[in-house]
Design brief:
Layout lengths: L18 H8 L10 H4 L7 E5 L2 E2 L10 E5 L13 E8 L8 E20 L4 E22 L4 E8 L5 E10 L4 E8 L4 E10 L5 E10 L4 E10 L5 E10 L4 E10 L7 E10 L5 E10 L5 E9 L3 H9 L4 H17 L5 H18 L1
Parallel strand pairs: 1-5, 4-5, 5-6, 6-7, 6-8, 7-9, 8-10, 9-11, 10-12, 11-13, 12-14, 13-15, 14-16, 15-17
Antiparallel strand pairs: 1-2, 3-4
Helix pairs in contact: 4-5
Length: about 350
C-alpha cells in the first residue's frame, strides 16, 4: 500500500475523519466475502456493471451505453487523487435518456480505487444506482457535469460488512439542470462521503443528502460543500443520522453563495437521533453568503426518541423494540423517501429496516 497522504486532523474539514479504520481496511487480508453478486442488483431494466476490488467483472455485467475505459481525472482531493486508471463513464447527448444504470462494487480486502465520469448534455436524463458490499477499503472519485436542463438521479447504498468506503463527488450543475444524490450508510463499515458541488447555471438545482446509521464502535461521516455561482439557484442538503451503542455519526454541510448569485434558495437540515446516550452525533451546518438577495436556512438538532410518543405506542400494545423501530424508521424516511424510483426507494427502506433489526 502506498502511503496515504491526507490532511488528518490539521484541517477543520477532516476533524471527524476515521483514519485509523481506513488505514486498517487498506491492509486487510483478502478473503472470500460470500457475496451473491446477482442478488445485489435490483429488479430494474438498464445497464449493469460489476467491479470486484476496483476491476471490471464482465461475467456479471451488461454495460450497454456505459463505457469501461481508462480515466485520468483532475482533482486536488487527497483521496480522490488516488482513484485513477480504468473506471466507468456515462456520456449522453442532447435529449438522450437512459434507464437506471446499476453498479455493484465488491471489495474482498485491501485497498481498491475507481474513477467515474458522468457527462449529460442538454436535456439529457439519467439514473444511477450504486451498491457497495464486502470488506476492505473502497475508494471512489466521481466527476459529474450536467448541461442545460439535464437531470441526474443518483442513489448510493453503502452496505459493506466492515472496512471503509470513501466517496468523493465533484459536480458542476448547469442552467436549469438538476442533480439529486442520496446516500444510505447501513452497513458495518466506516465511511467518508465527501462532496463538492457547484451550481454554475441560472436556475440550477442540486441536492445531496441521505442517512447514516451507526452501531457498535462504528464511525460514519459526510462532509459536503455546495457552492452557488449563478442566479435563481436552489439547493437542499437533508441529512439524518442515527447512532446506537458507542458509535459516532458526523455531518458537516456548507452552502456558499458567491457574489452575483442573487435569488438563491438554499436549505440545510441536519438531524441526529441517539438510540443510546453512549453514542455521539456531530452536526455542523455552515452558510457563507456574499449576495444580498437570497433565502438560505439551516437547522441542526440532536435528540432522543420522544418519550411521550413511545408511551403512546406502548399504551396501544406495541412492544418497546417495535415502537423504537417505527419511530426510527419515520425519522430516516425523511431523507431516503426523496428517491424518485419506487423500486430503489423500497430497497433503501429495506436496507434501513435490516439495520434496525441488527441494532435494536
Amino acid at each position: 500500500m502506498n502511503a496515504i497522504t491526507i490532511p488528518r486532523d490539521l484541517r477543520e474539514d477532516w476533524r471527524w475523519a476515521n483514519l485509523p479504520t481506513l488505514e486498517a481496511a487498506a491492509v486487510a487480508p483478502s478473503a472470500d466475502t460470500g457475496v451473491d453478486i446477482p442478488a445485489q442488483f435490483l429488479d430494474l431494466d438498464g445497464p449493469r456493471l460489476t467491479f470486484v476490488d476496483g476491476q471490471f467483472e464482465p461475467a456479471h455485467s451488461r454495460p450497454g451505453k456505459v463505457a469501461v475505459e481508462r480515466l485520468s481525472l483532475d482533482t486536488a482531493h487527497p483521496l480522490g487523487a488516488r482513484a485513477m486508471g480504468e473506471g466507468w463513464s456515462l456520456t449522453l447527448g442532447d435529449e438522450h435518456a437512459i434507464g437506471p444504470v446499476q453498479i455493484v462494487h465488491v471489495s474482498t480486502g485491501g485497498e481498491n480505487h475507481l474513477p467515474a465520469r458522468i457527462v449529460l448534455a442538454k436535456d439529457a436524463v439519467a439514473e444511477v444506482v450504486e451498491t457497495y458490499v464486502g470488506h476492505g477499503w473502497a475508494n471512489r472519485l466521481t466527476q459529474i457535469t450536467l448541461g442545460e436542463g439535464a437531470r441526474l438521479m443518483r442513489s448510493v447504498r453503502l452496505l459493506q460488512s466492515d472496512g471503509f468506503v470513501s466517496i468523493r463527488d465533484e459536480a458542476e450543475v448547469g442552467k436549469a439542470a438538476s442533480l439529486v444524490s442520496i446516500f444510505l450508510g447501513a452497513g458495518g463499515m466506516g465511511t467518508r462521503i465527501d462532496g463538492a458541488i457547484r451550481v454554475t447555471g441560472e436556475g440550477g438545482f442540486a441536492e445531496m443528502g441521505g442517512a447514516l446509521l451507526t452501531s457498535g464502535d462504528q464511525r460514519q461521516e459526510a462532509a459536503v460543500a455546495l457552492r452557488h455561482e449563478a442566479e435563481y439557484g436552489t439547493s437542499k442538503q437533508i441529512w439524518r443520522a442515527v447512532a446506537a451503542d458507542r458509535s459516532t455519526a458526523s455531518l458537516a454541510a456548507r452552502v456558499e453563495v458567491a457574489r452575483g448569485a442573487q435569488k438563491t434558495d438554499g436549505e440545510q437540515s441536519l438531524r441526529g437521533l441517539l438510540l443510546k446516550r453512549t453514542a455521539t452525533i456531530n452536526l455542523k451546518p455552515e452558510l457563507e453568503i456574499f449576495a444580498d438577495d437570497v433565502k438560505c436556512a439551516h437547522g441542526a438538532t440532536v435528540g432522543e426518541l420522544d418519550k411521550r410518543a413511545m408511551f403512546y405506542l406502548q399504551s396501544r400494545g406495541i412492544e418497546e423494540a417495535r415502537a423504537t423501530a417505527l419511530m426510527t424508521r419515520a425519522f430516516v424516511a425523511d431523507a431516503i423517501d426523496r428517491i424518485g424510483d419506487e423500486t430503489v426507494r423500497a430497497a433503501f427502506a429495506a436496507d434501513a429496516e435490516s439495520w434496525l433489526e441488527r441494532a435494536l
